[in-house]
Design brief:
By secondary structure, the protein is an alpha+beta fold. It has 3 helices and 23 strands. The chain is elongated and about 135 Å long.
């Protein structure tokens, strides 16, 4: 039992890589269309302004640390003198406040050092995910800013990749039942004309709401895409295998007839006469339909020429490759 739906190939992750600092784009270390891995160096921004900031911050830290050391020495001296009533109490309090001020300055200096080091780190732009690089958006030599709307490049995860497709809302209960039972449902992705199977994957996610305008629900299927059969934003037809039935009776769908009273087939009896037989149907898939009652395996049914048949009419059975494909002539 398959449910068919229209789908589109959708990457699991797509990242627009942007600069986190301002500066000149010095060099790039990738080629358009390359597959890069997480952590690979992609581009470098001129780090010299941040190196200068780091040196200044380290110098200020050294200066403030020396002032703090000297203030602590003075504090110890004042604590000794206060016991001898040689200095005023206010002097001791002021010295303690001065030490707290220098300690705050050192924390600020350390923050400036960390900020400069972080900017130097950000000047080396690395790949946040593993995927394929698209077209280059900025050339070396340009000044880039962290506030730029456009990024430097776009990385799209190709392996694995997903297909988001839709099914009708009345098909949802069967899918939910299978998923809740722990089944891993397979999904095949077919070409636009539904003639070529591109890849096979498994159902990953069911959306949390039905689109009321279309009466459909979105599902996501995952494909390893090891041979790059699927491409982002590609239109595909998805076939979700919901259930496999075994030991059931199948009849060619073309043999099934209907009128106002019943569903039936024309059955060829052993004496080569035709009679109509009422049947009950299950599900249909492709050219076959499940018969739940009224017909036994091995029976011969009429596929063609049913408009000429009457109850008890003689027929001539024709077979091809040991398989009945229809009744051609009335007698």
């Amino acid at each position: 039992m398959y449910f068919d739906g229209l789908g589109a190939v959708t990457p699991i992750f797509t990242v627009t890589v942007k600069s986190r600092v301002d500066g000149e784009l010095q060099s790039i270390h990738y080629r358009e269309g390359d597959t890069v891995h997480k952590g690979d160096l992609l581009a470098e921004i001129d780090p010299r302004p941040f190196q200068v900031q780091l040196a200044q911050a380290e110098g200020q830290l050294a200066k403030d640390q020396a002032l703090l050391d000297n203030a602590r020495i003075d504090l110890k001296r004042y604590e000794t003198l206060i016991k001898q009533n040689a200095v005023a109490e206010q002097t001791l309090v002021t010295q303690r406040a001065l030490i707290a001020q220098y300690e705050g300055s050192i924390k600020s200096d350390q923050g400036a050092i960390d900020s400069a080091k972080l900017n130097i780190l950000y000047s080396r732009i690395t790949a946040p995910i593993t995927g394929r690089v698209g077209l280059r958006l900025v050339d070396p030599g340009n000044i880039v800013h962290a506030a730029d709307a456009n990024g430097l490049l776009v990385i799209t995860q190709i392996q694995p990749i997903s297909v988001i497709f839709t099914i009708a809302e009345d098909q949802l209960p069967a899918v939910i039942h299978r998923v809740q039972a722990g089944a891993h449902l397979s999904v095949d992705a077919y070409s636009r004309d539904f003639k070529t199977r591109l890849a096979s994957g498994t159902l990953s996610t069911i959306d949390n709401q039905i689109d009321q305008t279309t009466g459909t629900l979105k599902l996501r299927a995952l494909f390893d895409n090891s041979r790059n059969e699927l491409f982002p934003n590609q239109f595909v037809n998805a076939r979700l295998l919901v259930e496999e039935k075994r030991g059931v009776t199948l009849v060619p769908t073309a043999a099934v007839q209907r009128n106002d009273q019943m569903t039936y087939v024309w059955l060829v009896k052993p004496d080569s006469t035709a009679t109509h037989r009422q049947i009950s149907l299950g599900v249909s898939e492709g050219a076959d339909t499940e018969v739940t009652a009224g017909l036994d395996p091995g029976a011969t049914v009429v596929l063609t020429g049913v408009d000429k048949l009457q109850e008890g009419a003689k027929v001539s059975v024709q077979f091809e490759r040991e398989k009945a494909i229809g009744q051609r002539q009335l007698q």
